[in-house]
Structures are given as C-alpha cells and as structure tokens.
Amino acid sequence: MRLPDYHTHTVRCGHASGSPAAYIETARAAGLLALGVADHLPLLPHHDPELSMEICELDEYVSEVRQLKEAFPGFVVLGIEADYRPDTVSDVRSLLESQPFDYVIGSVHHLGEWGFDDPRQIGGYDSRDIDDVWVDYLELVGEAAESGLFTILGHLDLVKKFGYRPSRILDAELDRVVKRIAQTGVVIEINTAGLHKPVQEAYPSADILRRLRAAGVAITFGSDAHRPEEVGRDFAHAVDLARAAGYEEFAILEPDPAGGRARVGLQALHAETPPEDRRGVAR
Ligand SMILES: [Zn+2]
Ligand SMILES: [Zn+2]
Prior knowledge:
Elements: E1 4-5, H1 20-29, E2 34-37, H2 58-71, E3 76-83, H3 89-97, E4 103-107, E5 110-111, E6 114-115, H4 130-146, E7 152-153, H5 171-182, E8 187-191, H6 206-214, E9 219-222, H7 235-244, E10 249-254, E11 263-268
Parallel strand pairs: 1-2, 2-3, 3-4, 4-7, 7-8, 8-9
Antiparallel strand pairs: 5-6, 10-11
The structure holds zinc ion (ZN) (2 copies).
C-alpha cells in the first residue's frame, strides 16, 4: 500500500534534524507515494528559535524544496505547517500568500499565550480545568477549519498529547467541531507521532475518526517526522485505524501547474500490510 507522508519537518525549525533531501531519500527508500515537506512557518507574533525558522529564512526554504520538486517530479510537494492563533490570522495569511506553497497544514499549538503541547510549558495543565482546556481547544480547531487558510488540519486532538483527558465524553463539542470541519472541505491527517508521545495514540482518536467518516470528511497521512528515519512511521497502523473507521479512500495532493494550491484527489485505501507491522487498533 503506497501512501503519501505530507507532514515532515527539517533542521530549519530548530527542534528537528535532517535536510529536506534526507527526508525525501528515506521516503523513496520506503516506497512512499509522495513526500510533503511541511516545516513550521515562522511563528508569529514572537519568534522562538526552538519552534520555527525565521521569516528571513523562508525564501531559502521554499527555493530548496522547489529544486527538489523539480528533481523528483510528482513525488515531492511543497508544504508548510502554520499555527492557527486568532490574533495572527491576517499576518499568517499574508505570509502564506507570499510563497507558492502547494498546501498548508493548519495546527493549533497555543491557547492564548500558552503553548500547551510544548514540553517546556507542561506545568500549564496544573493550574487549569482540563475540560475547559479541551473545550477551548476544540473551539479554536473549528475556527482554524473555517479560516480557509488550510488544506489539512494537523494532529486534530493534539491536546491529549501528555495524557490529560477530559472528565466526560465531549460528545456535543466533538460533533460540533466535526460538523464545522465537514462544511469547509479541509482534509484531516492521521498523524502517527502521537504513538510516541505520552498519550501513545495516533491523532485523531478512533472515536473522532468515526465521527469524521460519518460526516464525509477526507483523511490523509502524516508522520510529523522530525528526523528522516521517522518518515512514514507506523503507517500500517494508520491504515488499520482508517479502515476501522470505515474509510475506503484517502486524499492525495495534486500540485497545480499554474502555481496555485494543490487540488485534493482521492485514492482507494487497501489493507495489504503484513501483520507483523501492525499495532492493535483497539486502544
Ligand atoms: Zn515541530
Ligand atoms: Zn504541529
């Protein structure tokens, strides 16, 4: 089963290793369908050298990946992962429009000034009500979907990363955010990085995937690799999750020769991975 990996980083962000070429080499060796380089867009409003490249490095990033696109036509796509923060929407929009990105992954990493998935700021959970954190987070995800800035939403339930779970099933809130997503046509990634975080579960959960499927939301795949050897990691498990949720297709990105954003196409999802590569789905 050949899958694309649309969520990978590079050494430029300050917390990953490897050049785009190294990620592409791993992806080719692993027999992936496509490799999307989607490093972190310069973080606004304040730069943090451990979270992203600087604005002055963006041109170089884009030209490096575009050269690789030319070297591996149809295999490499130029992406970026942008933070959704209500206070920076117009600046992020201008930055995104200044470059010929094939696609943009939209991610919520902040609640106000709090970087809730940043290990340096994990103490922030101690002083907050976890149910409120989840509700506020899901509201921002809905806003991110509706902003129209993004092709894919990244790690949809990232707020579970450190294992902080709500005290009740957030049925109404989850249904509401899934409905908002479905109305926008944005694609959701199955992001396998969560399997290697304290929560030990892919993003989003099997429950959320079933809701997305029922609402007709398209999915695709991302490893969120921060080292070249993590490209395509645990994708056999991701396919199992997708199929368990009822998915029979996944989204692929078809670059626009005219330089606009990629078109989203669909491909059939087959389950043909060897059993020894698999993790249990019932988590
Ligand atoms: Zn990162
Ligand atoms: Zn992210």
